[in-house]
Amino acid sequence: MVQTNYRFGKHLRLLYRLRIGRRWRWVSASAFPDGAAEEGFRGATQAAARRAGLRAVVRGTHLGAVFCTFPNDPRLVRLTALLREAHALARRMGGPGSQVRIVRYKPETTLVLQLVEPSGRCLSYAKIYRPARGETAGRLHASLARQLRPDDPHLRLPAPLACVAGGQMLLLEAIEGRRIGALQGREAEVGLERLGASLATFHSLEPPVEAPRFTRCDAACLTEAASVLARARPSLGAEAEALAGELVRRFEPPPDRPVCLHGDMHTGNGILAGSGVGLIDLDKVSLGPAAIDLGRLLCLLRYKRLGGLLTAADERARVASLLAGYAGRRPLPSSHALRWYAAAALLTEPAMQALRRLDPEAIARLDLLLAEARRFLEGHSDA
Q1: Domain match, 265 and 339 both
Q2: What is the pTM of this model?
Q3: Is 118 exposed, middle or buried (0-12, 13-18, 19+ CB in 10 A)?
Q4: Angle between helices 291-306 and 335-348 (to 10 degrees)
Q5: Is residue 164 part of a domain?
């Protein structure tokens, strides 16, 4: 099994990589609430491509589940044809021998492809969405990219190259460089300082008209996250609900106008490119206080420390570099706002991801996550 997506009490989606005959195959599985599997099976069957070989869709009656063999996907329809089109685009862009590599597949949501020339150099990325969603993503990328000067020293964004296949596949410029999340030691500090500067520049852009308001830190979302944690780990229920209540009580509306948020900010979405940083994966661009993106980065640095991937000194150095880079381009949010959004992110992001991924080690650390969120909120964090 390579991927798990469990929404407590709602659905369970799994992605398997199985050896069938001489080939490795992806098989996705969706488990449905009582009585809904039959409808799910009919929908998946209608979307399936007819081809020889493995069955496209299989119903696991006793499990209440539906299994699909890749490239069959009930919501990413026409994947077989789209993959053929991606191969044709790669050959047109890079000549004979150019190939398509699968970078990431999230069943029923997105498929990310890398188009590479024979030498291995990346030509572009192609992202396949549910029908018509690629057009919206293309407009969003274009709105942001055209606001940047080509020689901006701090920020690069992947420009949209084309939207094809009826708006289902978006081709994006490839940004070459190293992921900031892969850097170590002093390089990581330099990378985070540049990430801070690039994020400050991003926050200065005019938000696209398609950008929704960021809602994952709203009172309703905090309360729901605490409720889910209470159901999954009853022993932590009282602490989770108390934390959510305290977050709601201590919330202070930001004095500044909302900015253009990345919405999914982590070091894997920053690419060190020359003297600046390229920000990628812009599908969750939204509108909200600048402290949301920064707070999420602080939260994830703390999560790495809790997992033993960073020392306390490493975390402090990286936080200082990130905030210094941001402050060099744009005023920082208040310390209260940074602490509040870091605490809220710990509750709504790593804690929920531990449950969605059914990660036993992360689930075992949920008590530590809640304690660290409380420390952030009360101003006792040593980062």
Answers
A1: yes
A2: 0.93
A3: exposed
A4: 60
A5: yes
